[in-house]
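Researcher: Structure for this, please.
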Amino acid sequence: MYNLFLTALSLTLAYLALHIPLWKYQQSIETWQSEVQILTAEAEPVLQLIERVNQRHQVLDNLTDYKRRVYPMTDVLLELTNLASDNTWLKSLERIDNKVILRGESKQTSTFIECLERSPMFQNVYPSSPAVAIPGTLYERFHLSVTLTSKDDK
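Model: Predicted structure, token format:
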């Protein structure tokens, strides 16, 4: 009977020796899972901020690329100033992306158009409407559309 008691006690201790670490391990896993859920919830705003930062970096990269490819307006004005003769005046200048709309007066609109076409900064120069003679003067009013080339094309 004593041997039976010792055998039962040995089996019980062996069972406990195996299952107590497993039980503690299971408890640790449950604790860690709840901590992971808490940390995941706390990390969500950070992940959203990271996404916003990445989107802003993309916008910044696009703007940087645009700035690298496109002539600044000051360069466009300088080129137009150099190309326009003393008898040509710009009354308005409008830029939409890589298109420039020019309105003005000149004694020789066709010569001004030829100068624009020879410039490496401009291409596809064409009148948006026919040049109109200004009564009582030697000038004509023009309305031109010009496409800016990319800096990369130069």
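Researcher: Any notable elements?
Model: Helices lie at 2-69, 73-83, 109-118. Strands lie at 88-96, 99-106, 122-133, 140-148.
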